[in-house]
Design brief:
Elements (H helix, E strand, L loop, with lengths): L2 E2 L2 E2 H6 L17 H4 L4 E7 L9 E6 L2 H13 L3 E5 L16 E12 L5 E18 L4 E8 L7 H21 L5 H9 L3 H11 L4 H9 L3 H54 L2 H13 L5 H16 L5 H15 L12 H11 L4 H17 L6 E5 L6 H12 L3 E5 L7 H4 L12 H9 L5 E5 L12 H8 L8 E3 L4 E3 L5 E6 L7 H5 L1 E5 L5 H19 L11 H11 L6 H19 L10 H8 L7 H4 L5 E8 L2 E13 L4 E4 L4 H16 L1 H4 L3 H6 E6 L13 H13 L7 E3 L2 E2 L5 E2 L4 H10 L4 E5 L3 H5 L10 E5 L2 H8 L3
Parallel strand pairs: 3-5, 9-14, 9-15, 10-11, 11-14, 16-20, 18-19, 20-23, 23-24
Antiparallel strand pairs: 1-2, 3-8, 4-7, 5-6, 6-7, 7-8, 12-13, 16-17, 17-19, 21-22
């Protein structure tokens, strides 16, 4: 539609005005021809419109001069000249700003509007051309000359062309939603062909300059052709626009339908509590509080944008949301402040752990190094020792001393590499590895993580977890530890790892190379008594609902429990025995029975059962029986090796579930005796006519290793010479075919086992002297150690004269 100053034609039609000439009463225009003969007329400049002859059109005037012109012209009943402005933005145009060709028009009616504006219903009559402007004030007046239209020579061709123009105009009206339906009605009801052309030129969606060119065209055939060409161009644009609209509207309809359905789902989810929009907003809010690098920020934005593009009903949406939940829960660059107070740390360790002086000293040294270096790039501590000696609790105490969060990660039974490195997030049920899960659980990026039971890691079909730990425990690599689920590096260099193990034999050598091994052998009798008094009794009283006065165990009773009812390096079994006593006391209390709070040794045996201690004097009170020392994964222990002779042909028989190495040690011992029988005082006849049987009791327990070599040889010599081995004497060492005694390992555990069993003397290889000197003197109190280099020395010391 064309705008006429401040009001457009559609609005005027809406007010009830019609632009069809046949519906206007023109009976009052009888003097039109007479008035049109004059030469000077008022000139009304209009904007954004061009008026054509024989067309009725409303004109809204807002300028004071225009209002004055219209009112005076209506009052005087004179025609006015309507011309278009060249520049529609000009408020007060000059004569040079007006087109010279316009249309004479009659004012039919004037309607006053709010705010002082008026609307004049006008009808055009003739085209004219301005010769000269005669007045400028209060409005333009000009001398004009009428312009006549040139009639077409071929009337039929002209009318046929106008029919095409009419049809095309109808099509445009149907395609263009901006043109009112009244225009189509008017086109169909205009009978005069010339008036039809002028009406279409007036209301077509042409620019004002283009309409002005049509008005200035005197040849009606040429005007019709130009009009048709411009209409055809508009029609093609409308068709193309509608095609694009129809094509896109199908996709939009589908998208809108999905959008509305999703909106309904979201509304329902929000009513039920939360929804996709809430999830995304929560994730973004969580991310705002994170302290992370630019690289991590960019990765998060990329992943959150991916989540926003996904359909909330698709399975991938939940996978992506779970990933971002974990991503934002990780404590990126969030650290607790270390408390490197060595004196305080020493007090914490002493309070929580009695004994283990060398171990606590090494831990304090480790912390001192960390304080001076101010980083975690130092060897990973690996605490190795039997169960129950406090390896895991030492890690907890270290965390308390440093003021860090503590997390325990059990590695026992792991057989899948993804347990350490995590699964790729595209898999169903994917999750991060246990390392990052522990970091998330702690809430900081520098906790103390205890890797418990490192020696019990398995190996399955899905990779080797031990190998995956190589990157975790390498200070040079773990600053960018890659987890498959996280899909980017995470800094583990500030994490303090403390590993524990019962044995080093099953741990990979490269993994051991990344750790600093600290051996924890076990506790002496006195230390166990002190631990029980300080920690175990109080703990069991609390766990069983008893107060501190419910029962008491003195030193003799505790010593009896340790010697007669336990046999271990640690204190775990001791705690179980104290728990048995606490439950007995709880039962008496619940039944309101009287009992003596001071538990006696007799009452201990009544509660715990009949003790079965190993009496060395009774067991070794016959030739051929020797006490040996062995190392096991749960600490040191004693074992008995016995041999006996029988008539035969000098054959050797071995029983007791012995391994290959122990069998070889027995064979070497017998061959040594045969080679040195004269020096040992053994006759050749006994060697030829006596079979010898070697047995190690507790046959259900597998036994292997070279440590029993000297004990087997001593047992055989004792049987052949029919002389007893000293009671309360034990020995350990490997032998060679020529009688040399070689050193063995596990000396501290073996000597502690000897003291627990009541051994008074021990025979060791001379090369093991340095191992004994490293043991605290209090541990070896009342224990005499003999150092030997050859078997002859062993036999001289061990066999009674």
């Amino acid at each position: 539609m064309t705008e006429f100053e401040d009001i457009n034609l559609e609005e005027m039609i809406g007010e009830g005005f019609d632009i069809v000439t046949e519906e206007i009463d023109l009976s009052d225009l009888s003097e039109t021809n007479k008035n049109s003969e004059q030469k000077i007329f008022p000139i009304l400049p209009v904007r954004n419109m061009v008026m054509f002859p024989n067309v009725v059109i409303p004109i809204t005037a807002g300028r004071k001069t225009s209002i004055q012109l219209l009112e005076e012209a209506q009052k005087n009943g004179e025609l006015i000249g309507i011309v278009s402005q060249k520049n529609s933005d000009l408020e007060n145009p000059s004569d040079k700003d007006l087109y010279l060709v316009g249309t004479l028009a009659k004012i039919i009616k004037i309607i006053k509007l709010p705010e002082g504006n008026i609307t004049a219903i006008t009808k055009g009559f003739h085209r004219f051309k301005i010769k000269r402007i005669v007045e400028n004030q209060p409005y333009f007046k000009a001398e004009i000359s009428k312009l006549k239209d040139s009639k077409p020579k071929n009337r039929e061709e002209y009318e046929a062309l106008l029919e095409n123009v009419k049809d095309l105009a109808s099509k445009i009206i149907e395609l263009d939603p901006n043109i009112p339906n009244a225009a189509n009605f008017a086109i169909k009801n205009i009978s005069n062909k010339d008036d039809l052309l002028n009406f279409i030129c007036t209301n077509a969606n042409f620019s004002s300059p283009d309409k002005q060119k049509l008005l200035e065209e005197k040849n009606l055939m040429a005007r019709a052709n130009k009009c048709y060409e411009m209409m055809h161009e508009d029609f093609r644009k409308l068709e193309l626009r509608n095609q694009i609209h129809q094509k896109t509207s199908k996709d939009l309809d589908k998208q809108q339908r999905e959008y509305f359905l999703n909106q309904q789902i979201r509304t329902i989810q929000e009513e039920l509590g939360g929804g996709p929009e809430g999830d995304i907003e929560d994730l973004i809010n969580k991310a705002k509080s994170k302290k992370w690098s630019q690289e991590v920020e960019e990765h998060f934005q990329k992943e959150i944008n991916r989540l926003q593009r996904q359909n909330p009903n698709s399975p991938d949406y939940n996978v992506q949301r779970n990933y971002l939940d974990f991503f934002t829960d990780l404590p990126w660059e969030t650290y607790t402040k270390d408390v490197f107070d060595i004196a305080k740390a020493e007090k914490v360790l002493d309070k929580a752990h009695f004994g283990l002086e060398d171990i606590k000293k090494r831990i304090l040294e480790h912390m001192a190094v960390l304080k001076l270096k101010n980083n975690m790039k130092s060897p990973i501590l690996l605490l190795v020792g039997p169960p129950g000696v406090g390896k895991t609790s030492l890690g907890k105490s270290i965390a308390d001393a440093l003021g860090r969060k503590y997390v325990r990660l059990s590695l026992g039974g792991l057989h899948d590499e993804s347990e350490i490195r995590g699964h790729r997030k595209t898999y169903i049920g994917a999750m991060a590895g246990r390392i990052l899960q522990s970091i998330k659980k702690s809430g900081t990026s520098n906790p103390v993580i205890v890797l418990d039971e490192m020696d019990k890691i398995g190996q399955g079909l899905h990779g080797d977890p031990s190998s995956a730990l190589l990157e975790v425990l390498d200070p040079e690599q773990n600053s960018s530890f890659y987890d498959n689920f996280l899909e980017m590096g995470y800094d583990l260099s500030k994490v303090m790892f403390i590993a524990t193990a019962n044995s080093l034999s099953t741990i990979q050598t490269p993994l051991l190379d990344r750790t600093e091994i600290i051996q924890i052998a076990g506790y002496t009798l006195e230390e166990k008594i002190e631990i029980a008094k300080r920690h175990l009794i109080k703990k069991q009283q609390e766990e069983n609902g008893l107060d501190s006065k419910s029962f008491k165990l003195g030193n003799p009773e505790l010593k009896h429990i340790i010697e007669a009812h336990t046999s271990e390096s640690g204190v775990r079994t001791l705690e179980k025995r104290i728990a048995n006593i606490a439950r007995w006391v709880a039962l008496q209390t619940a039944l309101s029975k009287e009992y003596e709070p001071k538990i006696s040794i007799e009452k201990v045996d009544e509660i715990l059962g009949v003790p079965r201690p190993k009496s060395l004097s009774e067991i070794t009170d016959s030739p051929g029986v020797v006490t040996g020392l062995a190392w096991t994964s749960v600490g040191g222990d004693i074992l008995f090796i016995e041999s006996i002779l029988s008539s035969g042909k000098g054959t050797l028989t071995m029983t007791g579930n012995l391994g290959t190495v122990m069998k070889e040690s027995a064979t070497i011992a017998l061959e040594y005796i045969k080679a040195r029988h004269d020096e040992l005082g053994i006759s050749q006849e006994d060697l030829d006519k006596k079979n010898i049987h070697v047995h190690v009791p507790e046959g259900a327990t597998p036994k292997d290793g070279p440590s029993a070599g000297i004990a087997m040889l001593t047992s055989m010599v004792s049987s052949f010479k029919n002389k007893k081995v000293k009671s309360h004497l034990a020995m350990t060492g490997e032998i060679t075919l020529r009688g040399k005694v070689l050193p063995v390992g596990g000396i501290k555990e073996k000597l502690l086992a000897a003291t627990r069993a009541g051994v008074k003397e021990v025979i060791l290889c001379e090369a093991n002297r340095k191992d004994v000197e490293e043991i605290k003197k209090d541990y070896l109190r009342n224990l005499k150690v003999h150092y030997v280099k050859r078997m002859e020395e062993v036999i001289d010391i061990a066999i009674e004269k």
